[in-house]
Amino acid sequence: VVDDDQYYLVSACKDNQPMLRDGVTGDWIGTFIGHKGAVWQARLSSDASLAATGSADFSAYVATSLFRAHRVNPPRNRKIWDTHTGECLHHLQHDHIVRAVAFPPQSRPQLLATGGFEKKLRLFDLSRPSQSANSSASSPTSPNGSSLPGPNSVFEIGPNVHGGPIKSVLWSSDPNVLITAADDKVIRWWDLRSRTPAAVHELEGALGSCEIDSASSTPSLSVAAGKSAYFFSGIQPGQLLKKVTTPEPIAAVALHVGQRKFVTGGSGDTWVRLFDLDDETQLDVQKGHHGPVWTVSFAPDGKLYATGSEDGTVKLWKFCSEPYGLWR
């Protein structure tokens, strides 16, 4: 979110070209060019000044956003994106596919967390020159300014703990807590000070999306697994608030805390479904995609939500009664 009425959307796709768009209208702003493989995840920093991408080309990029530039070819040896100019700032090389990237919840963040098929959770210190996943330098600091343990500017949290590829990495509202979701069907809340899990939760079914809603005054963590949607506290590690089981497999879920409704995307069909959180009833079905819906996210103001599908499209769905965005 940049202003109260302005926010941005970044998308990842198998065409290797993540895109930045106006979050209210969906208008294209720019394309980040440089990856040589499918981009599995793209994220913006909380102030939208930086974008990070994780790719099947065994790398993560960090760069400035594209508020003014429209199309930028970054140098081949550097990749984290500056959203104001499109400049590529860091190229973070890994030894396997990077499935997940995450910034801490702060303006112009100096840390990036990554995870993927190596089954390793890593932290990169962005204040130092670009590092590979195996390079070393002095110890980085946490988002709250305290020194993090370890001798390297790139270091691993919890070696040999994850039993499968890491599909999601999220920073909680506590800057000392990172959340990982892996194919071993376990959610882990990591204490960065001790580098050990503060809490774990085993899921039932194949892991889908895992996202935290930090826009609400009471942030929550929403997880899709099998036919169930799990809703955890965004403040207290491991605290399960509610689990809702549906008739269809769920690939993605997003919660609107204020209206106590949640939206799901399915892996077995092309529909988007709206549910009531309290009585667990289905309220509506949105049709329009032509492939499985892998990701769902509410806008920071909660007045629309976006869905991303295997069909190569991102769709915006209005979630308020008053005129808004394209529906004015």
Summarize this structure as a short list of keywords or feature phrases.
single chain, 328 residues, mainly beta, five-stranded mixed sheet, four-stranded mixed sheet, 0% helix
How far the N terminus sits from the C terminus, by CA atoms, comes to 21 Å
Rg over CA atoms:
18 Å
What is the overall shape?
Answer: globular
Number of helices: 0
Low-confidence parts lasting 5 or more residues at pLDDT below 50?
67-78, 135-141, 146-152
Kindly state the percentage of residues in helix: under 10%
Number of beta strands: 28
Which strand-content bin applies to the residues? over 45%
Summarize the main sheet: 5 strands, mixed
Order of helices and strands: EEEEEEEEEEEEEEEEEEEEEEEEEEEE
User: Structural class, from secondary structure content?
Assistant: mainly beta
Rounded mean pLDDT is: 87
Write the layout of secondary structure elements.
Elements: E1 8-11, E2 19-22, E3 28-32, E4 39-44, E5 50-55, E6 59-64, E7 71-72, E8 80-82, E9 88-93, E10 98-102, E11 111-116, E12 121-125, E13 154-157, E14 166-171, E15 177-182, E16 186-191, E17 196-202, E18 207-213, E19 220-225, E20 228-233, E21 240-245, E22 252-256, E23 261-265, E24 272-276, E25 282-286, E26 293-298, E27 304-309, E28 314-318
Parallel strand pairs: 3-7, 6-8
Antiparallel strand pairs: 1-2, 2-3, 4-5, 5-6, 5-8, 6-9, 10-11, 11-12, 12-13, 14-15, 15-16, 16-17, 18-19, 19-20, 20-21, 22-23, 23-24, 24-25, 26-27, 27-28
